[in-house]
Design brief:
The chain is α+β, with helices and mostly antiparallel strands. The protein has helices spanning 3-15, 19-36, 50-53, 87-102, 161-168, 173-191, 200-210, 217-234, 254-273, 278-286, 300-309; strands at residues 42-48, 62-69, 109-112, 117-120, 131-139, 146-150, 155-159, 337-340. Helix content is 43%, strand content 13%. 40% of the residues are buried.
């Protein structure tokens, strides 16, 4: 094992989800699914996202799942019915889930996110309080996948979350293991920025596209970053791998996204080129995983530039300037509305 893989494994140990909150997230998602299936007209439930894909990182956030409604019970809902919007049925589901979940978690509350009810539990485990997002879904009459809500616009959108899980967990055991590890590293890299540039789904799609059988961790990470950078630089869109949804969207301006990806790709390539020199590897990877790796010999200019690139609260003294420190807090939203509690 070279120094690059050694350091990346050290980063992984910091990034990977802790066992207790991860287990709790699974328990909470299973509980919400068991209560959601009792909702009038519910046909089945499913899991999606990080839990079945095994790509949760620390701290553990939300467990994703969905409940598919029987069209016979809701013939008016969605584009295949009378185009009735999702707001009312989502509110009904939240009113159903809140009291049901409080039988086990007395402080639980149900709010709404973009795709449906979001359950908050009020009982931290290891300092983390995993939530559950439960997507309200309808079968599509003339196409694959599901209709899922966009509660920001009170409309329905086509998606195939179950197919995504199938694709992202396909392949040989070694390919799946490398893909999972790359996704978790990418998530850790992305969340260091005050304004993350990419959704977890976007990073998972790139890993599914670009990680190939036989690749080791270092080559796979470099390949995903480099190929994603080239795609974004060229202005080429990333299509939905299930061929159901619209193209995957970036969270920041394309130019900024391209710069981040290219800088990370170049730094990982530099680490690989100097694989026998641990200090050189640390210096290169510190530019990528700046929350997890300390540069053993940072230059004054490079370290100041790194601080600015991170987009985090800074002080004038950190930049070698005099004066009062300036703090720019980040903003993060929770649910859009409170339906229950």
């Amino acid at each position: 094992m070279g120094h690059t893989e050694e350091v990346l494994n050290e980063v992984r140990r910091q990034i990977d989800a802790h066992p207790e909150p991860l287990a709790e997230a699974r328990v909470r998602l299973a509980l919400v699914r068991s209560k959601a299936i009792a909702f009038p007209g519910a046909r089945r439930t499913y899991t999606s996202g990080s839990i079945p894909q095994q790509t949760f990182i620390h701290p553990v956030g939300d467990g994703d799942g969905g409940v598919v409604l029987d069209r016979r019970a809701y013939p008016e809902l969605g584009p295949d019915g009378d185009n009735e919007t999702p707001k009312a049925v989502t509110e009904d589901m939240c009113a159903h889930l809140g009291p049901a979940i409080r039988e086990t978690y007395p402080k639980a509350r149900c709010r709404t996110s973009k795709r449906g009810p979001k359950l908050f539990f009020g009982e931290p485990v290891d300092g983390q309080d995993p939530t559950v997002d439960m997507v309200m879904a309808l079968p599509r009459k003339d196409g694959a996948g599901l209709w899922i809500p966009n509660l920001h616009t009170n409309t329905w959108e086509a998606s195939h979350p179950e197919r995504h899980v199938e694709l992202f967990t396909a392949g040989s055991p070694s390919l799946r293991r490398t893909r999972r590890r790359v996704i978790r590293l990418l998530k850790g890299w992305n969340k260091q920025f005050t304004e993350p540039g990419f959704s977890s789904h976007n990073l998972s799609v790139w890993a599914w596209e670009f990680v190939e059988p036989g690749m080791g961790l270092t080559t796979a990470l470099r390949t995903v970053l480099a190929k994603a950078a080239s795609r974004v630089e060229s202005g080429t869109a990333t299509p939905d791998p299930a061929k159901v949804s619209k193209n995957v969207q970036l969270l920041i301006a394309r130019s900024a996204a391209a710069r981040r990806l290219r800088a990370a790709a170049d730094a990982v390539a530099e680490a690989i080129e100097n694989d026998q020199d641990r200090d050189a590897v640390l210096s290169a990877l510190a530019r990528v995983f700046f929350d997890y790796v300390d540069d053993p010999a940072p230059s004054s200019l490079a370290s100041k530039a790194a601080i600015l690139r991170q987009g985090k609260p800074i002080t004038t003294t950190a930049l070698g300037l005099q004066g009062v420190a300036v703090t720019i807090p980040s903003t993060r939203a929770y649910g859009d509305g409170v339906i229950d509690g």
